[in-house]
Automatic annotation (TrEMBL):
This is ER membrane protein complex subunit 3. It is found in: Membrane. Residues 90-109 are annotated as: Disordered. InterPro entries: EMC3, EMC3/TMCO1. Coiled coil: none annotated.
Length: 261
């Protein structure tokens, strides 16, 4: 290897790769510092969700239930009566004449505003370093040819591997400094997953779809648990019709299996 190639390797190729790795790791930890701790739900809202989950778990095992019939029917009827009376509702049983509450406005909801600001800060942390690195490479290393790939390629790869160099006669296997940046931009994600774990904030592929100036998405319709409870009551009544206890005739089945009857 000539001295010029060794200098390009030591002062261009390695610094670009090392800077991108360190910036990705640093960005991951900055995003972790910017994230606010998850807010706990009030006890009433948590009870509202768990009551619905309890019924769904009970129904999912109705066809082959480990719960004896007496207890199963008692639990099912208790839940049905509670759903009908609105016992588990966060705001208590609905009163006659009350109109359904509209979904909260994200502009006036402090929790929603905090979430939008946190998302915008995270997107800025993910986008700004890449813009700075690209400007640094264009300013200091523009026009450098770094490496030659050891395998043949078609001419279709020339525009991807030789960005910033207008030389039609150059072998397509040579890689420019700007193209090396883009190769690292996508190719280091596997290294980040190895170092930081699968759910890391250094994944550069997210930068392609995220924008710090994107408008926040409109919130979805708030769930009306009163309607969900009424529908779950009907589902519980239906599940009682298909209920089957797994312990029905278990004595005869065990004795028959071992040849005692």
């Amino acid at each position: 290897m000539s001295s010029n190639n060794a200098q390009i390797r030591d002062w261009v190729l390695f610094p670009i790769t090392l800077v991108m790795i360190l910036v990705g790791i640093l960005r991951h930890y900055i995003v972790l510092l910017l994230q606010s701790p998850p807010k706990t739900l009030p006890r009433e809202a948590l009870r509202e969700q768990r009551a619905l989950t309890r019924s769904q778990v009970l129904r999912s095992s109705a066809a082959n239930s480990p719960i004896p019939p007496t207890y199963y029917k008692a639990i099912s009827r208790h839940l049905s009566e509670a759903y009908e009376a609105g016992t588990y509702l966060k705001d208590g049983p609905p009163k006659e004449g009350d109109a359904p509450k509209p979904p909260p406005n994200p502009i006036s909801d402090p929790a929603a505003m905090d979430g939008m600001m946190a998302g915008m800060k995270t997107q800025m942390v993910m986008m700004v370093p890449q813009m700075v690195i690209m400007g640094w490479i264009n300013f200091f290393f523009q026009g450098f040819v770094l490496i030659k790939l050891p395998f043949p390629l078609t001419l279709g790869f020339k525009s991807m591997l030789q960005r910033g160099i207008e030389t039609p006669d150059m072998d397509v296997r040579w890689v420019s400094s700007l193209s090396w940046y883009f190769l690292n931009f996508f190719g280091l994600n596997g290294l980040y997953r190895l170092i930081l774990g699968g759910d890391n904030s250094a994944d550069s592929s997210r930068d392609m779809t995220a924008s710090p100036f994107a408008a926040p998405q409109a919130p979805g319709q708030a769930q009306d648990y009163n309607k969900l409870f009424k529908a779950e009551k009907d589902n519980l009544q239906f599940s009682e019709g298909v209920y089957s206890w797994v312990g029905e005739g278990v004595e005869d089945r065990v004795l028959g299996r071992y040849g005692k009857i």
